[in-house]
Specification:
With 457 residues, the protein is of the alpha+beta class. It has 15 helices and 18 strands.
Length: 457
């Protein structure tokens, strides 16, 4: 059978596949720093050369920022477009790395061998699992089992400023039957996962101004309004004692989990205590009566990300500050309107504002949640293929973070997205000493090989 031969080829080619990944990891493609623009170009060129060597028609597409890589392969049946990003996060703080971040290495750990280096998990290691699966099919059969296109972005880690204009200008070329995105992880190290819901995001900065200058707390304390006190009271009122957000209309449109998904989540061998224990916490702090997985995946949240004002330097300076500042973010679920949430938050802050204070808001993005239609046959085909590879039932999961590209494919191109990744919770993405499990890399390649075969049936 061709699939068995392809899987055997993947096993035999492990060392070569790993060396190809190492070569890509050595390219310092930090997108947010203009000093690395040439390195981003080099990463795009490397991928184009590699894809062309596999028989893809691959090309570099210039943007106002870093280039896109677009590739197409001939084929019949289901047309799958695969998305990944070749740019990486900055490496700071460099002093916390055990080894140079762009000199990748294999390291033995108590949990097995890992690939250590910036981008190993996010997202070069993940995107190469798909490329290597395509390589194996081409090597064994001379062709891919289904029609495949590829889009690799170079600005994901710097906000994707060129992505939406590029997608709008090229939506006909990017149209496919299903979009495959490999920028997520597994719920446990042995449980393959398909993300079916992504939370949206609203960001706000708020500034409350009281007196027109910082005041001496000995002269004015007790009489003058302290904007930090005003801010603290307003922010504290954002949640009730049950952990629910108090904004008017905040839960309008929020739906309960489909029973099929709820049953799968309840069957997952996952513990909130263990999850929190990894960051030295122990008590779930979200909505009372909701499971830990619901709290991080399918329920909306409000968090204060930063708060400051007055004197924060070393030692003491007894002032009543003129201003207090805070940054707040909301993670939203399907059915919530980001603009209405923003309006409700601003109304809440104004309602808590004394008459001798002013408030100012700065907006930092507003994106809706994305929900995938799991009745699309591709989802069950992929879930079955993953189950076969990992010998564990693959599950549909949520993702507490926001991955805007999934929504962009739905809204701009009109294509459903399916998110499958092989990262682990401890991969330290965006942090020093990023790693990718060698087992995840190998089984990720085998998984994509199986999924491509399944989509062809």
């Amino acid at each position: 059978m061709s699939l068995d031969q392809v899987l055997a080829h993947i096993d035999a080619d492990q060392d070569a596949a790993l060396e190809r990944l190492m070569a890509l990891l050595r390219i310092q493609s930090i997108s947010t720093d203009s000093a690395y623009a040439d390195q981003c170009d080099a990463a795009a060129d490397w991928l184009i050369d590699d894809l062309n060597s596999l028989g893809f028609d691959a090309s570099k597409r210039e943007t106002p920022g870093h280039p896109m890589v677009v590739a197409h392969s001939e084929g019949t049946g289901t047309h799958a477009l695969f998305y990944g990003h070749y740019d990486v996060q900055p490496i700071d703080p460099i002093e916390l790395w055990d080894n140079p971040p762009f000199e990748p290495s294999i390291e033995d750990t108590p949990n097995g061998k890992v690939i250590r280096g910036r981008g190993s998990s996010d997202d070069k290691g993940q995107l190469m699992t798909f490329v290597e699966a395509c390589r194996a099919w081409k090597a064994v059969t001379g062709s891919l089992p289904t029609k495949v296109s590829i889009l690799f972005e170079g600005e994901e880690e710097s906000g994707s400023p060129s992505l939406v204009p590029f997608m709008e200008a090229n939506k006909d070329e990017l149209k496919s039957d299903i979009t495959l995105i490999c920028d997520t992880g597994m719920i446990t190290p042995n449980t393959p996962s398909i993300v079916t819901m992504l939370r949206g995001l609203v960001g706000q900065q708020v500034t409350i101004t009281g007196p027109d200058k910082d005041l001496h707390s000995g002269f004015f304390g007790g009489l003058a309004r302290n904007p930090i006190r005003v801010m603290n009271k307003a922010l504290a009122a954002l949640h009730d004692d049950e952990g629910r957000v108090t904004l008017d209309g905040f839960y309008d449109g929020v739906q309960e989990l489909p029973q099929q998904v709820a049953d799968q989540w309840n069957s997952i061998d996952w513990s909130a205590d263990e999850f929190l224990g990894g960051v030295n916490l122990s008590v779930p702090a979200g909505e009372a009566g909701r499971s830990g997985l619901e709290q991080i995946w399918s329920r909306p949240t409000c968090d204060v990300n930063g708060i400051w004002g007055g004197y924060t330097g070393e030692g003491s300076k007894t002032v009543i500050p003129s201003q207090a500042h805070a940054k707040i973010s909301f993670r939203l679920v399907a059915g919530q309107d980001p603009l209405k949430i923003r309006e409700a938050f601003q109304a809440h802050m104004r309602a808590h504002l004394p008459e001798d204070c002013d408030v100012e808001f700065n907006d930092y993005g507003a994106g809706p949640a994305a929900s995938m239609e799991i009745d699309n046959p591709a989802f069950e085909l992929a879930r079955s293929a993953l189950t076969d590879e990992w010998n564990t039932d693959a599950v549909y999961v949520g993702c507490g973070g926001s991955i805007p590209i999934a929504g962009h494919f739905q809204d701009i191109v009109g294509t459903q997205s399916m998110l499958i990744g092989f990262g682990q919770d401890d991969d330290q993405i965006h942090s020093p000493n990023e790693k990718y499990d060698l087992r995840s890399f190998h089984k990720g390649i085998r998984s994509w090989a199986r999924i491509l075969a399944a989509l062809a049936d």
